[in-house]
Structures are given as C-alpha cells and as structure tokens.
Amino acid sequence: LSSAYALGEPFVAILDEQGGNREVNEALTDPPPADADLLEPMRYLEGVQPVEVAEPSVPAGAERVDGGDFGALSWLMVLSERIDPRDALTVADGWAGDQYVSYRSADRMCTALAYRAEDAAMASPVDDLVRAWAAGSVGLGATVEIVGDDLVVRSCEAAPGTPAAQPADRSELGVSYATLRTQAFAEALTAGATVDQAACFGDHIVRHITPEEMAAGVANDEAAGQRLGREASEACL
After folding, report:
1. How many CB atoms are closer than 10 A to CB 215?
2. In which order are the strands placed within the sheet that holds 108-117?
C-alpha cells in the first residue's frame, strides 16, 4: 500500500526535472501504463508499453477463481522473499507483461503466473532467478516451465501438515531498493546528469548495497552515501 507513495515522489521529481509542470500534468492525464514504470522510470520516458500476455491454463478438474495482471511490483515483492532483492529487481526490470490465474485444485488454492521478458537477452537470467525462487519455496509445489514466449510459474498453498518455507519478510526491502534507485536517478538529473547517466547512477548505487546493509539503514548513513555516490559518479558520470 505504501509503495505508490515511496516510488511516486521521486518519479514525479524526475518528470518535473524533464519538463516541469507540463510533464507532470501529462502523466496525470495519461498515467503510466504499468507499475513497472515507477520501478524503472526510463520505461515511461521512452514510451514503453506493456505487452498482452495470455492467461496461463488451469489444470483439468480445477476451478478457476480469479485472474488478471500481476505486475512488476508484485514480482519484485514475491521474489524478494526467497532470493536476493537485487536479483528480484532484475526480474522486475526485465518485465514486459504478465497475466495470472488463481484456481482451486484438490482443495488447495494455487496460482499460475505467466511472465514475458522484454527481450531474448533477459529471458535466460530471469528463468534462472525464478527457478532459484521456486527451489526456495519448499512445500509449495512450485514449478517453472517455458510456454511459448512466456515463463510460467505455478505454486500452491502447502497441503495440511506439510512443512513449507516461510516468508523472509523482505518484500519491503525489495521496494526499498527500487525506491532508492529512483531517488538517486532524480538527484543525478537535478545535478545535471543526462537521463542515461542518471539511470546508470541510480542502478550502480543499489547494486552495491547488500540486503544486510540495506536492512541496517546504510542508505541513510551519510559517510556510506557519499562513498556510494562517489563510486557511482566515477562509473556513470
């Protein structure tokens, strides 16, 4: 619920830096088409549109319950529970579109998610990272397969009495990485960087903060912030 506020403020700052109130007004009139734009503002600035993805199939005998768009933000939050949030951010960055369906099978609730990578170069690393998530989801029957152009993940609630992997409470940490990256992007633009340099600057910073450091608040440490900013400047500016 708080992610729109955490991501929205620096996103608007980027729009304001690019074109002032007119750019912000245009975004209010014609909002970003996907939450992936808030995670990676370059998508919005370049006019990238999400692609249509077919709903995954429901197994024979199962009862369809619900379906629709899942969203890059949801991928980030879900994957962050089982893998490094920076890797989860990589999957969210590679998102081109998706579709989910939930269904009841043998008295258990299950979900199938179809993920479309933005290009062939992203498909393989995304596949590896999602399979790592599935491997860490003990007891949930998680499977990963390629169906046409899409990666399809299936997972069900644990059967009664079956030990299952517990969440690591890192969903918010995943959003923190995305928020910090967008904030750094906005700050670099304000300092005179180009859009490409600013995007590089923000990504370089978050890629060099471990989950342990992020959880400990290193992003709010002045000395650490100066060091990270200096290293990112040397790499990108």
Report:
1. 15
2. 63-68, 95-105, 108-117, 150-156, 143-147
Question: CB under 8 Å to 214, separation ≥6 — which residues?
Answer: 85, 173, 176, 177, 180
- Asked whether the beta carbons of 101 and 63 are under 8 A apart, the reply is no
CB 82 within 8 A of CB 75: no
Of residues 85, 100, 102, 108, the one with CA closest to residue 207: 85
Q: How many angstroms separate the CA atoms of 128 and 139, rounded?
A: 20
Stated as kind and residue range, the H or E segment containing 105 is strand 95-105
What DSSP line would sit under 138-160, residue for residue?
Answer: TTTT-EEEEETTEEEEEEEPPPT
pTM over 0.70: yes
**What are the tens digits of pLDDT across the range 172-210?**
999 999 999 999 999 999 999 999 999 999 999 999 999
Which tens digit of pLDDT belongs to each residue from 98-155? 999 999 998 899 999 999 999 999 999 999 999 999 999 999 999 999 999 999 999 9
If we measure between CA atoms, which residue out of 165, 163, 175, 156 comes closest to residue 75? 175
- Name the phi and psi angles at 192, rounded to 5: 105, 5
On whether the CB atoms of residues 177 and 141 are closer than 8 A, the answer is no
